[in-house]
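seq/struct pair 1
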Amino acid sequence: MIALADCNTFFASVEKVFHPGLHGKPVCVLSSNDGNIVALTSEAKALGIKRGAPFFQVKDIIEKNRVAVFSGNIMLYAAMSKRVQSIMKKTVSRTETYSIDEQFLYLDGYERFCDPEQLMRDMVVKIRLWTDIPVSVGIARTKTLAKVASKFAKQYKGYRSVCTIDTEEKRRKALSMFDLADVWGIGRKTYEKLTALGVKTPLEFADKPGDWVDRHFHKPGYQTWLELNGIPCIDTEEILQRQSISTSRSFGEMISTKEQLKASVAHFAASCCNTLRSQDSSAGSVTVFACSNRFREDLEQYANMATAYLDVPSSDTLEITAAALSLVDGIYRQGIQFKKSGVILGRIVPGSVHHILFDSIGNREERVELSRTMDLLNHRFGIKTVGLAVEGGKSEAWKVRRDHATPNYLTDIDQLLTIRI
């Protein structure tokens, strides 16, 4: 059996931890640049606010109902996630992090010593007591069914935060009640194809013959079908091993100079390289794009992108950033007010260091080690404690707007929470 532990409305829950007066009140968390709603409590949903809604469209509702609004603070959320996951890892010996608010826990063998459902329920209570973060747990034979069970645990209070799908009867009942569009592994195109073929529920999909599924869908669809039938086959590590890595962001203010555009691209390239090294892989191509503000019809519109191919797959921040900056020279246009840029790394292959006979860079190991050292310093002392000079300072105009930001209570000694008694 495997369990999926999912932190409920995680970003909003973290904000409520440090603002206890918000218990039972509507809370929303915004995306980068305070653009969209990315997390919200049930009280906020009851007001008609939806996840993904642009902030400016619901601003009147928020102000009228005194909804608490926070800019996304990934540093704070990551620090709290680490605390929650540490409790999970002490409860179960083998775990697997799927996202900042989701963790798979392998329960095989635990049934010989305890009741796995009670073990998970005790863990949920401990997490709530030690961190004040609510968690829902789904237990099943496959990861996909565990995801389904966790949704039921979150939706129905009668499960007391833990739902188990451990019999054929429970599996069929759960799949008959679940929304097909919410099944893990069924994306928009797969959902549209299934509905066009007359499939309306996960149970109807699971009941289809295997040769029918194999004929109409590729490997991911067939794997989802197997998982819904209780046959484990999804390797989460394969999913997390990305085929491309991208970082892009709208700017806090529009920019027009090549130096500012290069600073943003260098910043995003360094972020991509950090992710690349974290999964012990290298990239063979670098793509840079930039565009103007499509909502400003009074301004000249422009968008362009360019790609460079590396002779040797690399995870070296210096090399990849240099390639990205050379691409900016080709796509930059004077007089354009740029609103967004981004970097995409492609042709991902395993391994951080690769060699060819006539390599123009002779010290690849040392350069990658330098990049790893920068990663360690930034992880320990905060994002961008160490970076490339070309990225500019914290006051750059293209930096994201965070008008409702919470301090980094858990990672910055100068922002520790102060309690007056």
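seq/struct pair 2
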Amino acid sequence: MPLEVIEKVVILARGLGTRMRRQDADVVLAPEQEAIAQQGLKALVPVGRPFLDYVLTALAEAGYRFVCLVVAPEHTAIRDYYTRQAPPRRIQIYYAVQQEPRGTADAVAAAESFVQQDSFLMINSDNYYPVEALRRMREGTGSAVALFEQETMIRLGNIPADRVRQFAVAQMNGTGCLNRILEKPAPETLASLPRPLWISMNCWRFRPTIFEACRRIGPSPRGEYEITDAVQYAIDHLGERFQTVLVQAPVLDLTSRKDILPVQQRLAGLPVDY
């Protein structure tokens, strides 16, 4: 398969933001942060600038040109912000609407008309990925997943160690390709995996074949269509190989109100230019 450089990105920004909306007596937010947190719009939480501004800047620095934000029908604030208040200079922003919050695979499927027949990067809107990882995911052959070394995430990131150790762990085969993503693996399974442990932070390079996989899977036990299930279907039934891009740098996470100040401190001083 020839080397391909991708330019398109799909960002999942449809989430309900349940944990961000939840009040926390230990966290005091600035008024503008409180207003956005109450709406659950994690992507627009101001941490100097709105969090998504930093995500888009990292993508522009890594060389991507076209970004599709998967949003809810009512997410007019995101459209208004990037259309009127802070329009992009280096990238072009498109939108896809996920009508109901039916999971990450359903969100990816909503962007099919944007992707068309191109390979693309898929990331979360509430994670800030290192530019190094985004650059490495741009070039390759076929599908891939960026994996982040667990202890580096604990040592250098903003996520508490107990949370990081609950994240999904990748199991790789003898050729270094992804075998499966292990969600909440049992202690004995973890003990059997080689060290270091590599965790998935939902940073994927997909070929358009992922859309067939998204259509073929059923709902998970929690009633959602999960992108990890679609990936597993693609591996098991469509013969898709997912290369692994191993990264020893942290991903910043903006899930709850407790994350806002640590993320703001780590992003302080970073220029915004997307």
